[in-house]
Amino acid sequence: MDEGYWQERASEINLYKSSDSSGKLNVEKIHTGVPDAKSLDTNDAFILDAGVGGIYVWIGKGCNPSERAKAMDWARQFLEKQMRPKWTQVVRVLEGAEPEAFTQWFGNWNEAKKPVQHQPKLFQVSNESGKLHVEEIADFYQEDLDGDDVMILDLFNTIYVWVGAGANKEEKEAAEATAKVCLKT
């Protein structure tokens, strides 16, 4: 699509803050046009009305349980109040797991909400050479799992230890110790 299309669509975009902190539902328009990603507050829920692009309900990590539970109901009420067709797409979006279909509506998403990237790491624990080695495997694939060794997959918040059928006792013990070191660091 060309630049003119997006400029025309920008005037249709509205961002609303949704809250029940006062004891009753309050939906307040906070922005018209291409919204600023910094407007999204982790303690609240927001409705992004992207016109023909649909409705998105963004739920911050710090929302209270009531706001989390009611967010989609608020979106349905919002559709009725705005007299939008019942078939209008409503997408629930969780903070930290925003799809591109949502982030495309924000002019500064990448600058404002860039997550810290943690690339998975794969380590091979082997004593094939006679000396125990723990070696990182770069640019790995499932085929890199060696049936004669122990492999450690570090996903930052989760660590998996894969024990090959041909792994020996020393490799298994070293893998456990290495996995514990990964957890600590």
UniProtKB/TrEMBL annotation:
Gene Ontology MF terms in the entry: actin filament binding; phosphatidylinositol-4,5-bisphosphate binding
GO biological process assignments: actin filament severing; actin polymerization or depolymerization; barbed-end actin filament capping
Highest taxon of source: Eukaryota
UniProtKB keywords: Repeat
SMART domains for the chain: GEL
Pfam families according to UniProt: Gelsolin
GO cellular component: actin cytoskeleton; cytoplasm
Gene3D superfamilies, A to Z: Severin (3.40.20.10)
Domain Gelsolin-like: 36-102, 136-180
PANTHER family: GELSOLIN (PTHR11977:SF123), VILLIN (PTHR11977)
Protein name: Gelsolin-like domain-containing protein
